[in-house]
Amino acid sequence: VSGARAADRESPRATRAELVDLLAHAGAEAYVSGAAMARRLGISRNAVWKHVESLRGEGWEIETTRSRGYRLRARPDALDEAAVRAHLGPGRIGRRLVCVESTRSTNDDAAERARGGEPEGTVVIAEAQTAGRGRLGRSWVSVRGLNLYLSVILRPAIVPAAAPQLSLVAGLAAAGAIEAEGLEARIKWPNDVLVGGRKACGILTELEAEADRVGFVVVGIGVNLNSTLAHFPSELHAKATSLYLAGGRRVERARFAARLLAQLEERYERFLAAGFAALAQEWNARSALTGRSVRITGVASESVWGTCTGIDTDGALLLERDGVSQRMLAGDVTIVGGYE
Ligand code: BT5
Fold first, then answer.
1. CA 331 to CA 340: how far, in whole Å?
2. Distance (Å) from CA 133 to ligand 1 centroid
C-alpha cells in the first residue's frame, strides 16, 4: 500500500488520465468497480474516490453506485458527433463525422475509409492518437481529451502535383478558425500555423493517386487547443504553443472543430472553382515568412537560402537572393535567427 501511495503522489496527473481512460473505455453504459480501478492504477480505493471527486468538480459527470462502482456519463467539453454537429451547418465537409476515443492516426483511419469508398467530406476525429504523424516520419504529440486531431477525406478533380496546395488551403482554414478565437495566426509555409511565433497547428496532407489523377486526399489537421506546456515534451517547450497558452482561455473543442470545418469548406469551394490562385493573396497576407531570411532544407542535399518574398499563385515559396528569384516546391523552412 505504501508503494501505491508513493506512486499516487508522484504523478497524480498520469494516474488521473489513466483513470479517465479506464472509464472511457468501459463506455457510457458500463460501470467499473472501485476495487478494479484501484488495482489497475495501483492506488487505494480512497484515492480513486478522490480523483473522481476532483474530476466532478471540473464538470465530469461520473455516476457512482455503491454496488457497481463508477460510470462515465459525460465529459466536459465533449468532442462527439452530436456536439460538433450542433455547431455545424449543412455542407459537404463534415457531412459524415466519425468520432473515436483513441486511434493510431486519424489520417490512417480516413485513408482506410477512403480506400473502402467513403465519399468526400467524411471527417474522422479522435480524442487521442497513439501514433499521430507529422511529415517525413516525424510524430505529432497527441494528448488525450484536450486538443483537436481530425482528418478530412477529399476527392478533388486535380492533378497529383496540385495536392500539396490543399495543405495551404487547410492552413488558411486553421488560421481563420484561430482568429475567430480572438488570436492572431500566421502561416509558416508549407504546413504550420503559428500563434505568437510558436507552432499551434500542423497539417499533414497525404494522397493516393494514379499518374495523372488524384484518387483521394486526406487532409489531417492537429491543433493544440487546451494543452499546457506540461503536456509537451521538453524539446517542444520553446517552439510549440496552444490556444489556451497563447490566449489564457480554454477553447470549446466542438465549436472550434465545427468552425474549422466550415472555414475549410469555404476555402475548398473557392479552390475547386478557381484554383489556389484565388487564395494566394489571402495566404500571403498571413505568411509568417515574407520579408524574412530563411533556409530551406530537405529538397536537395544542400540547403537553399534567401529572403522570402511570398508564395506564388501555385503555392510555391518564392525566395530571392542577390536579385535572383527561386521557386521552392517542397522542404522544411528555418527562419534564420528565429523559429525553426
Ligand atoms: C506536421 O508535421 O506539422 C503535421 C502534423 C499533423 C498532425 C495531424 S493530427 C490529425 C492527423 N493525424 C495524424 O496522424 N497527423 C495529422 P511536421 O511539419 O513534420 O512537424 C512535426 C514536428 O512538429 C515534430 O517533429 C515536432 O518538432 C513538432 N510537433 C510535434 N507535435 C507537436 C504539437 N502537438 N504541437 C506543436 N509542435 C509539434
1. 13
2. 6
pLDDT in tens, 197-221: 999 999 999 999 988 899 999 999 9
Widest distance between CA atoms in the chain: 78
E strands within the chain? 61-65, 69-74, 96-103, 122-129, 148-154, 185-188, 192-195, 198-209, 214-223, 293-297, 304-311, 317-321, 324-328, 332-335
Half-sphere exposure of 78 (CA within 13 A, CB side): 18
Ligand 1 within 6 A of 111 CB? no
C-alpha cell at 334: 528555418
Residues 295 and 287: their CA atoms lie apart, in Å, by 16
User: If you ran DSSP here, which 8-state letter would residue 235 be given?
Assistant: G
Which three-class secondary structure state does DSSP give residue 268? helix
Bridge-based pairing state of the strands 214-223 and 293-297: unpaired
Mean pLDDT value of segment 33-59: 93
Nearest CA to ligand 1 atom 27: 236
- The CA-atom distances, in angstroms, between 215 and each of 74, 120, 266, 271, 329 are 39, 11, 22, 17, 21
Substitution candidate for ligand 1 out of 140, 153, 187, 188 with most atoms within 8 A of CB:
140
CA-nearest residue for atom 3, ligand 1, is 202
Q: State pTM to two decimals.
A: 0.85
pLDDT band of residue 10 (cuts 50, 70, 90) is: low
**DSSP annotation of 237:** T
Question: With 60 as the cut, is the pLDDT of residue 339 above it?
Answer: no
69 lines ligand 1 (CB under 6 A): no
pLDDT digits (tens, 9 = 90+) for 73-125: 988 888 999 999 999 999 999 999 999 989 999 999 999 999 999 999 999 99
Over range 229-251, report the average pLDDT.
95
Nearest atom (ligand 1) to Cα of 134: 2
Judge residue 131's burial from the number of C-beta atoms within 10 Å of its C-beta, 0-12 exposed, 13-18 middle, 19 or more buried: exposed
128 near 231, Cβ under 8 Å? no
